[in-house]
From TrEMBL:
Entry keywords, A to Z: DNA-binding
Keyword DNA-binding: yes
Any Pfam family matching the protein: MerR_1
Protein name: Transcriptional regulator
Residues of the HTH merR-type domain: 38-91
InterPro entries (UniProt xref): DNA-bd_dom_put_sf, MerR-type_HTH_dom, MerR_fam
Superkingdom of the organism of origin: Bacteria
Organism: Brachybacterium alimentarium
GO function terms (MF aspect): DNA binding; DNA-binding transcription factor activity
Length: 230
């Protein structure tokens, strides 16, 4: 084999990551990402890593970029996998999640962000002691190094409510209700998560996500009717 061809072959092999290396590379942005999720996305045709002769998965740079697109579309837009797959078939990776036209759904307008604590306070126009108050009443998780769209929305909405006298201590009932709804959804999704079956575990995660979107829609519709009828 010519030296140049051998070099290209070695470089190509080096560019391919194992599943563990992919998880490590994405850990900062997706700390909960697991083997099961990647296996499930592969079984659904969203990613297609190469296989070595021994059967090990190897991910190219394009595989990782496609994976990031899928994960961000789920996290920041709450898109179901069917919608993501349709978009990828139609547009590929030509557009970032942030530039995709909004689709129907209560979370369709959420824009992805990644902020440190000071950046979160600045974007939400609050002091850091307001973040501490939200943490005190369980509205914001403690100990996070980075904050995303959901946390920014929580802090911004809580600030707007505080401006009219509804402070974090008044929102405990809302937090408790959300916890109960999340528990209910996890209970329904749990039977789909079969021990030792990575694809089933990933399916259960996405099933819970889709149920959560339906719960958000229902909650918003019921809330609007109650406001109308009051």
């Amino acid at each position: 084999m010519p030296a140049s061809a051998a070099h290209r072959s070695a470089s190509s092999a080096a560019a391919r990551l194992s599943i563990g290396q992919v998880l490590s590379a994405l850990r900062d942005e997706f700390p909960d990402l697991a083997h099961s999720k990647l296996h499930y996305l592969e079984s659904e045709g969203l990613i297609s890593p190469e296989r070595t002769a021994a059967g090990y998965r190897k991910y190219t740079r394009e595989d990782v970029e496609r994976l990031l697109f899928v994960l961000r579309a789920q996290r920041d837009r709450f898109w179901p996998l069917k919608v993501i797959k349709e978009h990828l078939l139609e547009h590929g990776l030509e557009s970032e999640v942030t530039s995709i036209a909004s689709r129907p759904g209560p979370t369709a307008a959420v824009q992805p962000v990644r902020l440190d604590r000071r950046g979160l306070a600045r974007r939400a126009a609050v002091e850091e002691d307001f973040l501490e108050e939200l943490e005190q009443y369980g509205m914001l998780s403690e100990g996070l190094e980075n904050y995303g769209s959901a946390e920014l929305e929580i802090v911004t909405s809580a600030r707007e409510l505080a401006d009219v006298g509804l402070h974090p201590r008044h929102l405990v009932m809302l937090r408790t209700s959300a916890e109960r709804e999340a528990h209910m959804i996890r209970s329904v999704a749990k039977p789909r998560d079969r021990p030792g079956d990575s694809a089933a575990r990933g399916e259960a995660e996405d099933f819970a996500r889709d149920l959560g979107e339906s719960m958000i829609s229902l909650h918003g519709a019921v809330f609007r009717t109650k406001l109308r009828d009051s």
